[in-house]
Amino acid sequence: LFIHKKKKLFSTDVIYCADESGKYYAPIYYESLWEQYNLWNLEAKALWVKDAKSEFTTYTQFMENKLEVLMEEEDLCEEERLIKRAVLKRFLKQETTESGCATMDLCSVNEYGSYLKPFGPDYEFPGGFSKLIEFLADKFPRNLVKLSHPVEHIGQVDDDENPILVQCKNGSAFQTKHVVVTTSVNYLKKNYTTLFDPVLLNEPKIEAINTIKMDTVDKIFLFYNDMSFFPANCDAIHPLFFDEPQKFCIRTDWKYKVYTFDKFYENMLMVWITGKEADYVETLPNEEISDVLTEMLRKLLNNKNIPKPDRIFKTNWNANPYFLGSYSYVDVNGQANKHINNLAEPLYLNNVPRVLFAGEATHLRYYSTVHGAYLSGQRESRRLKDFYSSKQ
Predict the structure, then answer these.
(1) Which pLDDT score, from 0 to 100, does residue 10 have?
(2) Domains defined for the chain, CATH in brackets
(3) Is the per-residue pLDDT at 285 higher than 90?
């Protein structure tokens, strides 16, 4: 893994910032505001940690107010203010990928600090996460792992030893002592009324399922045989938009959600996109995505000769029926301590934890991360171990 360590944007990276007319914006417009933004971000996180409340409800409101106050103090001219607002808007689009929400207008600033970024750098798995699953699966006897067994129903049967019945769509059924449910929260939202026997559920669990939110975060990978058009010694191109349409049309305006062309490898650019724009892009043919993003690059770099990518690959988290989104966040109607903990709480029968819950959305501090999902699995394993140890 160590040779596949991912670079961290905005620390030492060189950014090329431009608008759709091809006008380049010097780092002075960008880097100083990024430093200030990070300080404001720490202030927002401190609200939850200190159990304080902001006068603002959403993360967007909090950040926009900070910027307006700063610009008043600096007595900026109107042109400089327009640039600063456009830069902040780009930062907020970037923040949606970290927070997992469609827009930071949905994210509660008072609950924002409940999320704690795991310590250490990001890593890329060669071959993707499937390689990790294959590695872990090799540790188990093959007959213990059932593939292609989508679960249709989890119910209770009259059996003191194995009171839980798991029914699969292929007709298979299994009686067991315990079940650990690790589906995404959006899968639970869509299916909990049919997935579980009503007798197993309780009001706090249902409220948690319905309250915790989850949107789409997708990546688009653009592969080139020749990427000499990319600015020399540059790590990413960041677009600024000054004329985003007032009446939004997803078919023509999804491109405005793009906030970076990240030079991931020497022959590949990575584009992030979130929310309903990501959902829509998942439905588009690669040729149309190629046309839109190539035209954007040509405008940003003022170069009509930039080629189309030779190959495109995109993630499809929303379209996947077993995910229906990417990862969770706490919106303006949620309370992390209450709803995440209630989602993680097992369902008991006769004081025995029979249906347990794991997955990123059940970790109070590391929700939205693979790190949190991993730790939540350990948590539920320990829960069962401790339960049986107490019976001895």
Answers:
(1) 41
(2) 27-113 (no CATH), 144-214+324-390 (3.50.50.60)
(3) yes
